[in-house]
Design brief:
Distance between the termini: 48 Å
GO molecular function, one term: 4 iron, 4 sulfur cluster binding
CATH class of the largest domain: Alpha Beta
Largest sheet: 6 strands, parallel
CATH architecture of the largest domain: Alpha-Beta Horseshoe
Shape: globular
Cofactor: [4Fe-4S] cluster
Helix content: 25-40%
Subcellular location: Cytoplasm
Protein name: tRNA-2-methylthio-N(6)-dimethylallyladenosine synthase
Family: Belongs to the methylthiotransferase family. MiaB subfamily.
Bound molecules: 5'-deoxyadenosine, iron/sulfur cluster
Strand order of the largest sheet: 2-1-3-4-5-6
Number of strands: 19
Structural class: alpha/beta
Length: 440
């Protein structure tokens, strides 16, 4: 068998999952085919994340585990890229710790991967190339997508916000917006190919266009995309509450293709902590945005990200977070324990919170969030919801997909409905997922 194979291991968020699709696109172009196991690959790529320490530890563990394989398979190429390598000194540290790694690249030179692999194939010495400065936004290689009927589309890169806990602005650089005509063309061609759900990606989609003197903006981009009247769903993430505007809410209200689900990370409930986080809004201001959204779009649901154990967080501060979960009526929340990231402002703050206190708070928060999510699930019982079927679960013998609000639903079907919108009557709604039957 002459074919060459790649295996990509991805850590972190959807942004990274999509970036792995771009890496896959480059490797496919070079003649590599995907394979499910590192053992069968000619090149293994680690697309890393460093937003929290555990994501980094996870990658370290997995890279280390390949040492044996590399010994027995000298021609195997091992490449490490993504956010982790962008941290100062990290590339050198990686090379020292794992001398068997062949290529180290960063987030800014993703487009250079082909060159780096070709260079490594020509020489013995490893290739380490991590750029400090942002690269040009290139539209070079077509991503190799594996998430049909869903597709991710970047609308911007980087972040200018410098929330004090967050490493993203350091490893992904300043905000750069893609040209609207490129985005619209990509979405149109995805719809031509039969994709049914498009998710627009950016660290803060509300500042889309700010780097182009306001020549274009996010609500207008949504409006432009929705000129296409074919049946599809449009989602976006993430919205920073400080920039969440009435015009954006209007754009959602005007266009039924846009899902009535807004992900609006709040992070914390205490005004003092929000200020220390540099979030630029208060508990009341956040709730005002939630109210504005619900008033204009009553069937809108809101999800959020919440962090516990930020430096100096007291029990009273934490209580405010719980109050906010109650008041905002989130349909679900992604919850995190604050992780100290070297190089950020918060890492140097006094009053880092002990692990046992953090653990106790996250458990209480998760239990509140879960009980709310279960309550919301119950409201689905007996209802008919439209589900976009994503896959077939061979083990369980059922199809699965999501409704507009991102709820997973399972249902049997005699025909293959992957990629189709189906109406499902919900018969069971325990926990977070739904079970039902197709109705015609
Ligand atoms: N520790 C824990 N969680 C973090 N996030 C960002 N930085 C950190 C950190 N240092 C969370 C935020 C953000 C989500 C993507 O990750 O809640 O919204
Ligand atoms: Fe990080 Fe804040 Fe930027 Fe989000 S908005 S990526 S939390 S700095």
């Amino acid at each position: 068998m002459n074919e060459k194979h790649y295996h990509i291991i991805t850590y972190g968020c959807q942004m990274n999952v999509h970036e792995s699709e771009k890496i896959a696109g480059t490797l496919k172009k070079m003649g590599y085919e995907p394979v499910a196991d590192s053992e069968d690959a000619d090149i293994v790529v680690f697309n890393t994340c460093c937003i929290r320490e555990n994501a980094e530890n996870h990658a370290y563990g997995n890279i280390g585990a390949l040492k044996k394989l590399k010994k027995s398979k000298k021609d195997l190429l091992i490449a490490v890229g993504g956010c982790m390598t962008q941290q100062p000194g990290k590339a050198e540290e990686l090379k020292k710790k794992f001398p068997f790694v062949d290529i180290v690249f960063g987030t800014h030179n993703l487009d250079e991967l082909q060159k780096l692999v070709e260079l490594k194939l020509k020489r013995k010495k490893s290739v380490v190339d991590v750029w400090e400065k942002e690269g040009e936004i290139s539209e070079k290689d077509k991503p190799f997508r594996t998430s049909y009927p869903n597709a991710w589309v970047n609308i911007m890169y980087g972040c200018n916000n410098f929330c004090t806990y967050c490493i993203v602005p350091y490893v992904r650089g300043r905000e750069r917006s893609r040209r609207p005509e490129h985005i619209v063309a990509e979405v149109r061609s995805l719809l031509d190919e039969g994709y049914k759900e498009i998710t627009l990606l950016g660290q803060n989609v509300n500042s889309y266009g700010n780097d182009a003197d306001g020549a274009f903006n996010f609500p207008d981009l949504l409006r432009e995309i929705c000129q296409d009247k074919r049946k599809f769903r449009l989602r976006f993430m993430t919205s920073n509450p400080k920039d969440f505007t009435e015009d954006l809410v209007a754009a959602i209200a005007e266009n039924p293709q846009i899902c009535r689900l807004v992900h609006l990370p709040v992070q914390a409930g205490s005004d003092r902590i929000l200020q220390k986080m540099n979030r630029k809004y208060t508990f009341d201001e956040y709730l005002d945005k939630v109210k504005m959204l619900r008033k204009r779009i009553p069937d809108c649901q809101i999800t959020t990200d919440i962090m516990v154990g930020f430096p100096t967080e007291t029990e009273e501060d934490f209580q405010k977070t719980l109050d906010l979960v109650d008041a905002a009526d989130f349909s679900t929340a992604f919850t995190f324990v604050y992780s100290r990231r070297s190089g950020t402002v918060a890492a140097e703050m006094e009053g880092q919170i002990p692990e046992d206190v953090q653990k106790d708070r996250i458990m209480r928060l998760v239990s509140l969030v879960n009980s709310k999510t279960r309550e919301k699930s119950k409201e689905y019982l007996g209802k008919i919801v439209e589900i976009l079927c994503e896959d077939y679960d061979g083990k369980k013998g059922v199809y699965l997909g999501r409704d507009e609000y991102g709820r997973m639903g399972y249902f049997p079907s005699s025909e293959n409905v992957v990629g189709k919108f189906v109406n499902v009557k919900i018969t069971e709604a325990s926990g977070v997922s739904l079970t039902g039957e197709i109705v015609r």
